[in-house]
């Protein structure tokens, strides 16, 4: 077991319908945090949506910069989607962003998400079990993480959605000054999205992406889509007005909720 300890917030003193957990992870050899939303939802084996943040952020940004709780409530009121638990982890706190990668020298930020965060959700929330389906999404660096982890571990995730995604490590240059060699992994193909998509092409879960026309990552997204089309990787790609901003993500994460609900309704 990679979780050494859990510290769970007291619902009496936590903002309504939320929970905060600190996980001491052996994958990282330190403590990091996860925020949950919709913890009042009732049911058995409720599905979870893992939402990965971008550079500079932490577990709280989806709620406190992006108003994801309001976005979720809006979709639920308008479209009657079923209950999901929103799971919003720290990226692990490396540099200005970990990339959610299993770095060679700094820690396994991949296993932090796919092992610790999911297991802690099962241990913490009575509505979440081993039978709960897991969906993954993210923005910017988190979009890259969602695409890569979803493609690398297709049996763990029921669908993937990504917003304004970094599509290769080189895209980090738009946001951070860290030398990209610091993200070196044991496997030279580790950071390559298309490598994992092609490797697991027959098992990939449903996948969607979107990006704003004014986003600095728009051209990078188009290049990835061209490669995915050439490799015949099944996906949906949408383009909207807007840039690399929380205003954009607050609106379009609502499409993620509807997309995941459509898939969940098939079960």
Automatic annotation (TrEMBL):
InterPro entries: AB_hydrolase_fold, Esterase-like, Mycobacterial_A85_antigen
Gene3D superfamilies recorded: alpha/beta hydrolase
One Pfam family, short name: Esterase
GO molecular function, a single term: hydrolase activity
Residues making up the signal peptide according to the UniProt record: none
SUPFAM superfamilies: alpha/beta-Hydrolases
Record keywords, A-Z: Hydrolase
Cross-referenced PANTHER family: DIACYLGLYCEROL ACYLTRANSFERASE_MYCOLYLTRANSFERASE AG85A (PTHR48098:SF1), ENTEROCHELIN ESTERASE-RELATED (PTHR48098)
Name of this chain's protein: Alpha/beta fold hydrolase
UniProt lineage: Bacteria, Pseudomonadati, Pseudomonadota, Gammaproteobacteria, Alteromonadales
